[in-house]
From TrEMBL:
GO terms for molecular function: hydrolase activity. This is MBL fold metallo-hydrolase. Residues 39-238 form the Metallo-beta-lactamase domain. Signal peptide: none annotated. It comes from Neobacillus notoginsengisoli. PANTHER family: ACYL-COENZYME A THIOESTERASE MBLAC2 (PTHR42951:SF4), METALLO-BETA-LACTAMASE DOMAIN-CONTAINING (PTHR42951). The lineage of its organism: Bacteria, Bacillati, Bacillota, Bacilli, Bacillales. It comes from the Bacteria. Keywords: Hydrolase. The keyword Hydrolase applies. InterPro entries: Metallo-B-lactamas, NDM-1-like, RibonucZ/Hydroxyglut_hydro. Gene3D superfamilies: Ribonuclease Z/Hydroxyacylglutathione hydrolase-like.
Length: 295
């Protein structure tokens, strides 16, 4: 898998097309596919409406998801919500053909993408000038191949600032803006009844920087906010679902690493030894990668 997210496992699938899976009573999801960086797509199913979480990284990705949805019993009346503005979550919007709900910043950022060219030359030039990152440019080329004219940027229709409640008929969903280093427009999608939290990519590192990084105070505040949901299942867009116990263990380890990095700023050896002590074990590659993003 790409060095996309430390501590994230599963989701890769080279040979077979992903299939829709049931996560809880009212939630299905199409797992991530690392081959072309396709994120998780979700369906929250109420009595009256189906809420789709993220639009996919291409028309083909959206189509795969919509075809899978046909196979299950779910209301035809649909809503679409976007977790953040990154290409892999929005390039399937045209195919979804639904008015999208998003944070106000998400709309602003998506509108900035309008008018951009997506040819190899244009992508390479944006990578050269630091506007685009190499990883995304590569994945866009791989997902779309020659069919770059299929990239059509669509604006969200409904926007909100802090939070928004959606009643799907017997199933309430809360959209909450959380921000974070990865994308400051990031929201999470909480399915209250099922205690499922769609995380988007919110606690991934900032990848739009010369050196991928986290800002310690921003990162710690985000981790606290995510913990408050007390969800039963946490679903990051590029990972397999995690139970509360698994996610809280991850939170614990991320906090230990952040604290070690802050208290021993710039001293790699001291950071690593504080981490070892805090974690009570030897460090693995994921630990070292996370520490490197913190300074
Ligand atoms: Zn992202």
């Amino acid at each position: 898998m790409p060095a996309y997210f430390t501590g994230c496992h599963g989701g890769g699938n080279k040979l077979a097309k992903q299939k829709l899976k049931q996560l809880s009573k009212h939630v299905r999801y199409l797992p991530a596919d690392h081959e072309t960086d396709r994120p998780v797509l979700g369906a929250v199913i109420g009595n009256d409406y189906t809420l789709i979480v993220d639009a996919g990284n291409s028309p083909a990705h959206a189509e795969l998801f919509l075809n899978e949805l046909k196979e299950i019993k779910a209301p035809e009346s649909r809503l679409l919500v976007l977790t953040h503005w990154h290409w892999d979550h929005i390039f399937g919007m045209k195919k979804m053909n639904l008015p999208a709900i998003a944070h106000t910043k998400t709309k602003k950022y998506i509108e900035k993408l309008k008018g951009l060219q997506w040819t190899d030359e244009a992508l390479d030039e944006r990578v050269r000038t630091g506007v685009e990152i190499e990883f995304c440019a590569e994945m866009i080329k791989k997902e779309f191949g020659e069919r770059r004219n299929e990239i059509e940027i669509v604006s969200p229709v409904i926007t909100f600032e802090n939070s928004l409640a959606i009643d799907l008929g017997g199933v309430r969903v809360r959209l909450q803006h959380v921000g974070g280093d990865h994308a400051d427009d990031s929201i999470v999608v909480f399915v209250e009844k099922d205690k499922v939290l769609f995380l988007g990519d919110c606690y991934t590192q900032n990848m739009y920087a010369k050196k991928w990084n986290y800002t310690a105070p921003v990162f710690l505040k985000l981790l606290d906010e995510l913990e408050h949901f007390q969800a039963a299942v946490y679903l990051h867009s590029h990972c397999d679902p995690a139970t509360q116990a698994e996610f809280f263990q991850e939170l614990f380890e991320m906090r230990i690493t952040t604290k070690a990095a802050v208290e021993n700023k710039g001293n790699r050896e001291a950071i690593h030894s504080a981490m070892k002590e805090g974690l009570g074990r030897e460090l693995n590659d994921d630990d070292l990668e996370l520490a490197s993003y913190l300074g």
